[in-house]
């Protein structure tokens, strides 16, 4: 039975409020006692920060979380209705409803106990030599890389697989192999001597022992210590996050036969065969070659018994949400409470929505946009997109430091940039995926294998530039530099980010800057390395590229000075791509806003000019309040700077100084020569 505490009857009333949420500036969030030039983030958001409490089931709360909460309720109405539907088997509605209902059947999951783990445990126990270890590792390989952060992802599988466009031959797909194998978010959690991370390491060892004990492993403490030490050795060979962001270091082409020579230890032919990568697939891109070689060596050198405990632990962690409550609670204790500071688990119905969404993203998305993304909104945003594209084109032409040939190449890449608004041109077909109403564990297994098959099926076929990598109900936007394409998900395109009937200053300051940010990614330190034909090939003159990189270095230095925690500053190198995109996106949005309003930017609303509303809207789009563990995790491994520092992008924009009369001597003032100028 589904949990009767799910707020079925309340949904309609909540949705009525959510569907027409007010846009415009949140003037109540502002602290007008603060001089804008001293702390612009606090000026725009100070009152909100002062009165906002982080919910106990969160590591933080902010603008995007508010939109996600609204979207979650919208999706819940759809999914919970689907769970009561008698739609034919195999239809999107039935798949979605049955997946959700199975997850919500907590009594059934408890009754099955450890039975779902029996086959898994038997398979791992049967590993008798390195040949069998390679086979198991290959059989369990999945295309589970986070495509939004693929170059820096750490997957809990020993390796991550990413099927994507070949950087050198952009008309075809190629498998990318990436480092993985860690239970904690980043190598620094294993290797950094900082006291805060040493404390986390101790709690992780306790957590591993607890999970092994729940799974029936004898002597769990000693075996947990050996597993954690193995992970530490894996972490020691990992490339850093900053290193993996460098495309030129990652584009390493290996032939299938090269693996035995370059990364001895793992029986690679057995691994690839078990992973269903056919013998005809000869080319691979190995993103972190030293890490792949180091991990392969550990496969040969570390005791087989330790590897078996390691594999069982990671298999359990991956499936914890579909196991009895004791596993769910222990997984929460470390991954949500220790790492993010969350105090309570999210309600089961919310976790069920997230699980269904993750497994059947396009099926849920197709239902979602039918109800919640009107054609009028899509048309208005598509018009904004073209305004922003035009603004960037004009900026390129006006650059006094860029050579004509480089400008021509940039214009060609901009013209070919494909920007999808709301949802994909073609929806995924889930034919063949078996979802049962009474098998939550099996549903997750089959959905993961189905996705893996979908990704493998791309090999040997031309690249589809219209493909989406995020579902439309995800509050996000993403640029795919190699494919020169952008996905603007429907859920991102709602208040307070966007109101189809709202103030242009608000729309451009919030959503316009986001779209401009994504456009800029096709021309930032990564995107600028791909030419108009989508090849990893520099189209810059030597002098132009030197100028561009010098500006980027100044931005690195600027962000390195932002102290986020007493013992930890923002990493300007790690966050350079996003910081460049923030700056260029803000400039493009401001230009496009002025082009849109045609001289009416001085019009007052709520006592603010259009330019002031634009910049306040931008700062309010970065509203966020975080717990210390969540902030620390972001600083150590996320390519995005914390939101309060992203709001300070305005310091590099001349128009911000004019709008708020920011003067020398104020804390956030930068002299004109110190302001970073890129495009």
Sheet with the most strands, sense and barrel status: 4 strands, mixed
Total count of domains = 2
**Widest beta sheet: strand line-up:** 2-3-5-4
Task: Tell me the distance between the termini.
Answer: 58 Å
Rg over C-alpha atoms, rounded to the nearest angstrom: 25 Å
User: Which class do the helix and strand fractions yield?
Assistant: alpha+beta
Provide an overview of this structure.
The protein has 679 residues and is an alpha+beta fold. It folds into 2 domains: 114-322, Neutral endopeptidase, domain 2; 373-424 and 454-674, Collagenase (Catalytic Domain). The protein is 53% helix and 7% strand. The protein is built from 29 helices and 11 strands. β7 (477-480) and β8 form a beta hairpin. The chain starts with 10 loop residues before the first helix and ends in a 19-residue tail after the last helix. 48% of the residues are buried.
Secondary-structure blueprint:
Layout lengths: L10 H9 L20 H12 L8 E3 H21 L8 H13 L1 H7 L2 H11 L4 H10 L19 E7 L7 E7 L8 H4 L3 H20 L5 H18 L3 H4 L2 H4 L2 E3 L2 H5 L5 H7 L8 E4 L2 H13 L2 H16 L5 H16 L7 H12 L1 H12 L2 H24 L5 H13 L1 E5 L17 H17 L20 E4 L4 E5 L14 H17 L21 H19 L2 E3 L2 E2 L6 H22 L12 H11 L3 E3 L1 H10 L5 H4 L7 H7 L19
Helix pairs in contact: 1-3, 2-26, 3-4, 3-18, 3-19, 4-18, 6-16, 7-14, 9-10, 9-17, 10-15, 10-16, 18-19, 20-21, 20-23, 20-25, 23-25, 23-26
